[in-house]
Specification:
The chain is of the alpha+beta class. It is 40% helix and 18% strand. It has a 3-stranded antiparallel beta sheet, with helices on one face. This is DUF1059 domain-containing protein. InterPro entries: DUF1059.
Amino acid sequence: MKTLKCRDAGFDCDAQIHAETDEEVLAQAAQHASTVHGVTVTPELAGSLRPLIREAV
């Protein structure tokens, strides 16, 4: 399981995205960023988020 913390991406937000693959995490993160933060995730932004994805423990 992979995880991405919104706070690690620079937002003052406690949301965490959990999914099986990096691509699923990025898709869910893009949806969250759009609906909650009003941010459109560009390919460049997705590229900067990818290193923040961790294996869930």
